[in-house]
Amino acid sequence: MPHHTNWARNVEYSAARFHRPTSLDEVKEIVAKAKAVSALGSGHSFNTLADTPGDLISLEAFNPEAVLDREARTVTASGGIRYGELGARLQAEGFALANLASLPHISVAGAIATATHGSGCANRSLASAVAGLTLVTASGETLALTRTSPDFAGAVVGLGALGIVTSVTLDIEPTFTVAVSVYEELAWDTLLNHFDAITGAAYSVSLFTNWARDTIDQVWLKQRSSGALPVAGQRFHGAVPARVQRHPVRGVSPEACTGQLGIAGHWIDRLSHFRLDFTPSQGDELQSEYILPRAHAAEAIQALRALAGRIAPLLHIAEIRTIAADGLWLSMAYREASVGFHFTWKRLQPEVEALLPILEEALAPFRARPHWGKLFHAQAGHIATLYEKLPAFVSLAERLDPGHKFRNDFLTRHVFGG
Ligand SMILES: Cc1cc2nc3c(=O)[nH]c(=O)nc-3n(C[C@H](O)[C@H](O)[C@H](O)COP(=O)(O)OP(=O)(O)OC[C@H]3O[C@@H](n4cnc5c(N)ncnc54)[C@H](O)[C@@H]3O)c2cc1C
Question: Where is the FAD-binding PCMH-type domain (predicted)?
Answer without folding.
Answer: 11-175
